[in-house]
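For the sake of clarity, the format in which proteins appear in this thesis is described at this point. The fold follows as a row of integers, each naming the local backbone shape at the matching residue. One such record is shown here in full, so that the layout can be seen directly:
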Amino acid sequence: MDFNVRRLAADAGTLLSRAVQYTEEVLGQAERTELDSHLENLLDRAEATQQCTEKIMKQTEVLLQPNPNVRMEEFLYEKLEKMAPVRPNNLELLGECMIDAGHELGPGRAYGNALIKCGEAEKQLGSAEREFVQSSAINFIAPLRNFIEGDYKTIVAERKILQNMRLDLDAAKTRLKKAKEADARSAEFNSTPPLGEEYVTHFSYMLGFLHVRWLKMWTEEVSKAETELRISQSEFDRQAEITRLLLEGHNSTHETQHLRCLTDLVDTQTTYYAQCHQYMVNMEKQLGSFSSVYCANNNQLSLAGASDGISRPSTSTASGATDGISRPSTAPGATDGISRPSTASGATDGISRPSTSTEPGATDGISRPSTASGATDGISRPSTAPGATDGISRPSSSTAPGATDGISRPSTSTEPGATVLPLHTAGQSSPSVNELHLSNGTRKARVLYDYSATCNSELSLLADEVITVTSVPGMDSDWLMGERGDKKGKVPITYLQLQS
């Protein structure tokens, strides 16, 4: 117990002397021992490195997690040594939202399918971002935090010890200086002669005597102060050397380590952005294919509208008649450089169809004007001499009875006011529809354009969606039974395109 009290008293005295020395240095009443310039540069460099490293680490954390609340929560979980809950990032949430919207709007439609594909790509981007955050936290932030919380704390501790050693050294120097001053004044008082027998009565001499005795106590401390000064100087020099070696080692080591961490961060970012670029290129290609299909569907709708029975100006076979499209005229017997078989009178191309005739009133079940000699195949073009072609590959037509050109189309006439009727009218269906009627099976069909139901037995349609159609016995040949999900109803054939 006595030893502990003495040790406590000694520590208290040391702390008091350090506080007095520091206060006198601040007030400018005491001299301060300056450190070596090289050591000062090392200390300043270490402090600047710590400040820059801390700023970079905090800003990197902001980049990886912009939400301050989430960062604080992760910090608390880290201090409590618990696993933080896994949350989906913003890209993954966006992807889930797009996928849900695509399924709700209908994956059979172009927009719904595009939303699903984009949602999957966004989820891939979110997964890549999660890997980037984890890799950056391990390879970059963790080494920087280890430097701040480990290596730099060691440097700060050694620097604090060096500061205490310097205060002890300066305090020892101050005590030695005061002891020497007391010794000099004591020698001055000892050289003064006595005042005789009456010196006791002189009160001033008694005060001087007491003052000399007090100064002699300091002269006894000279040798002790010199010993403490030598010990403090050696400890200070030893601590300064330890601090210098530690700073030199850390300055050369942490620069190499931080450079390697920075390289790892750049490599991680390169991999992350390369993955994101690849995902976006793939998504752009998929959206481009959707756009191409959409444009093709619009072209098909335009072609279907060209033969849907809308009244158009009549075409004539007179010389110089055109359809508004500039084409080069062909001389008699000229060809377009493409060989095609010619059909003689009564010859056919192997497909059974109604024959054409030039007699008045002859029809094939579809009301159309009769074909005159040299009439074309339903496309208005400049008149050509017999045997001339128009630059479109097709078998040559003849005006003989039963001659056909292999394509079912309305004939042209020289009479004004002639109209073009639709290809499929009541009572006439395409071969695929006929097969569906005969087989009574189910097929997939794509809707060409929107259709609004006129009664409860019909089914409303949206353009570009895919439905299931079935031929019901006894139903009109112009209608099919359509099914979309749990909804059923009649749909017109002319609004559908059967798929294989």
Notes: Residues 92 and 123 are 5 Å apart (CA to CA). Confidence is low (pLDDT under 50) at residues 306-429. Helices lie at 2-27, 37-64, 68-79, 90-105, 110-190, 203-306, 431-439. Strands lie at 442-447, 466-470, 479-484, 487-492, 496-498.
